[in-house]
Amino acid sequence: MKKQRAVLLAVLLVLGMSTLALANGFNLNSLGTRALSMGGAFVGLADDFSAIYWNPAGLSQFKKKTLGFYLTDIIPNTNYLFQRPSQSGLLTVVDAETKIKHYLSGMLTYYHPINESFVAGIGIYAPSGLGSTWDGNDFKLVTNETAYMLESRVGMITIAPGVSYKVNEKLSVGASLNINYGMFSMKRWAGMIEIPEVGSLDLGQFDESLNGWGIGATFGALFKPSDMFSFGLTLRTPSKLSLSGTVNIQNIDLLGPNYTNESAATMGLTSPWWIAGGVAFRPMWDLVVTADLQWTQWSKVRQLVTNYQDAYWDVLMTGSGTNTVPMEWRDTMQIRFGAEYLLFQNVALRAGYYYDPSPVPANTMNVLLPCLSFNTLTLGLGYDFDGLKVDFGFEILFGTQREVDFAEWLFNERYASANPGVYNMNIYVPNISISYKF
Q1: Residue 160 to residues 117, 215, 264: CA-CA distances in angstroms?
Q2: Burial class (CB in 10 A: 0-12, 13-18, 19+), 82
Q3: Which of 106, 113, 284, 424 has a Cα-to-Cα distance from 359 of 20 to 30 A?
Q4: Where are the alpha helices (DSSP H) in 157-226?
Q5: Cα–Cα distance between 156 and 158 in angstroms, integer?
Q6: 261-296: per-residue pLDDT in tens?
Q7: H or E stretch including 72?
Q8: Predicted local confidence at residue 101, as pLDDT
């Protein structure tokens, strides 16, 4: 039991080092209520105020000045169960459920037609972000019988000035500059450390907070061969984020007079390529059906390295290997479908579905930044009041249960950064959009 607990403590020591990469692992790529309600299959349509995110070529479809606002509340619910074999059967070590948290996100855009062919605009939106909050009392069996704060919060805000040009009646192109501000915070147990001739020291609470800027771009094309069909293609480049901030470990000063409780820290992190293609089909004037394929190059996320500015911290963390966390993420392809039906000339009903596979392999799965595959259903309702549009939407992400096998974790070194156990998660996303053309 002591040996198994010691291994658990070592695993928890590296929790929290997986930072902003998860923000894109939990892409909020259903920005805008109309797009979200249609399953996020919007690259081939891109004809409302969320176009600067989905396909900036869609800006060329705006003939009037347009102001748009989107607000969403992301409500994750995660369960984690860890049981290990014992002489009397399975022993429950952790049986926990995340606290209910509301993660607000949104979008604000403005588009301004310059002439019949050229439209400029700007968008401010949160393309990614999520988090988890656990009750530390549920993890006391693996945190030295002490209830430490276990919380993560990750996110990114993008400022995106963009333009679109209508080449001819069938083809439009567009682009945006993405100025990204990344935020990360995490609280966890810092773990135990062995001190020669002294014994074990509980390092106490670990508190990390990093933020920083990066630059990227989005390019898009929209092709409409007829009134019945339109095709879209979008490419979003990587953005290298330079994060900096502080890390605090409650009891690290007990290691000696050379240690202070806080150190400045930095991390370089690059978001992945995102390439999406979509089609919109309008068999009748009052019905449009859409479909997208959206690919993300997660395989670039191999490991995360934190650099500590304090020399003593750097020697300690580098020497123990806790400054580096393996990620080993995999490329993913999302499949999305959506439809919109005009019940009346100014009332629209919408629905959609998409499958979002997890990029995270079992050998790097952990409780602070869990990532599951999702089957997602979306619904929506829209009203058009002569230029003023109000849209309501709801998205439910049903997570596919994942398990990190205890035996694999215990005997396979590739699982050293994982948490063994069974993970379940659902996410509920109510949202509203308001836009006005003038």
Answers
A1: 20, 10, 30
A2: buried
A3: 106
A4: none
A5: 7
A6: 999 999 988 888 999 999 999 999 999 999 999 999
A7: strand 66-86
A8: 81
Closest CA to 350 of 364, 339, 337: 339
Looking at domain 2-437, its CATH class is mainly beta
Residue 28: pLDDT band (50, 70, 90) is low
Backbone angles phi, psi at 298, to 5 degrees: -70, -20
Residue 261 identity? N
Task: Give residue 29's pLDDT.
Answer: 63
| Number of other CB atoms surrounding residue 319 within 10 Å | 9
Q: Where in 286-359 does DSSP place strands (E)?
A: 287-296, 303-305, 307-308, 324-326, 332-344, 347-356
What pLDDT shows up at residue 130? 67
Range 193-232 burial, b when 16+ CB lie within 10 A, else e: beeeeeeebbbbbbbbbbbbebebbbbbbbbbeeeeebeb
Q: What percent of the chain has pLDDT over 90?
A: 70
Residue pointed to by tokens 């995270």: 360
Give the residue from 215, 216, 233, 214 showing the smallest Cα distance to 224.
233
Helix (H) or strand (E) holding 9: helix 2-13
Residue 4 has pLDDT above 70, yes or no: no
40 vs 128, which has greater pLDDT?
40
Distance, in Å, from the CA atom of 186 to the CA atom of 366, rounded to the nearest integer, reads 13
DSSP three-state, residue 206: strand
* Residue whose entry in the numeric block shows the structure tokens 């509203």: 432
Mean pLDDT in residue range 175-191: 92
Q: Which two tokens mark 380?
A: 């929506």
| DSSP H stretches of helix in 14-157 | 21-25, 33-37, 51-54
CA–CA dist 147, 153 (Å, integer):
19
Interatomic CA distance for residues 371 and 362, integer angstroms: 10
Sorted by where each begins, the domain ranges of the chain are 2-437
pLDDT tens track for 213-246: 999 999 999 999 999 999 999 999 999 999 999 9
Mean pLDDT of 294-307: 87
Structure tokens at 290: 């859409």
What lies within 8 Å, CB to CB, of 311 at 6+ separation is none
The pLDDT score that the predictor gives to residue 270 is 83
